[in-house]
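Note to self: keep these together.
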Amino acid sequence: MPTSFFHGREPLTWIRFLGEQLDYKAIPIDSLGQILIAYQRIINKAFLAQNNVLSKHARLSLYNQQDVQLQLTAHEEGSDVYGLSSFTTDPIIAEILQDLLTKSLLAIGTYALKKVFLKDKKETEGLSENKSGLDTSLLENQDFISLIYPNMQVLVRSINGKGGIEAIKFISPNKQGISPVVIDASTKTYIKKIKEEQIFGGYQEFDGRITRYHLDEHIVVVLKKRTKQPIKVYLNTKDFTKLFNSKISEDIFVTFCGKPILRLGSNISKFEEFDTTSVKIQEIPI
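Structure:
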């Protein structure tokens, strides 16, 4: 099928909309617009994650927006297949964007494969062996996967709706060797099902003062330094015993190391629960 290229630009990636109704009618403009915007926002978040500035309300600067912005540059005539490329012609920027597209595709793939919540190492390793060709490189950043949840909700909203879209296929950037990722009605059901689920964020440390011990559950309530926000901290038996027996006064800070427990799409900097791997009692000020 002939393809129309705009301004002679060959796309970095493609999106194909699938559905029987689309054989004789085009995808509605409002559905197309919502899906493209949601996809662009996932790419924006990939950039923020790559630069370690990701949070729920983080935004790109105008300068960075130009670097990661996509534009429609191709369309297969008589079909619902669209090609996307960098907004700029700078080959260095195009290479950076290609990497962000790959990271975004991998993140979308975790939802398509219903692998947002990986139970153990064996299950994580299995992700590199499935037919999609996805690997575990993105799973190191669970914050990113969590924060694209609202965008995934938008991507699946039009599936099996009035527009006739039954599935959306995201085709990998050129020369990346990753098979296309397809989201469909089963993905839509999965995304709705996991709405209230929790997910671990990335490893971090925070300081706080212990205000309460829950002996039966090995939990302490901690007032986070600076923000004074109360955090429910889960401890192993060894660390709980260490802190409890130390009889730490409320003016002594403790460093908690581990992962925040988040709800999908929540602000990763304002967690309310924390799962620790280790603790360190700070020196008593003289």
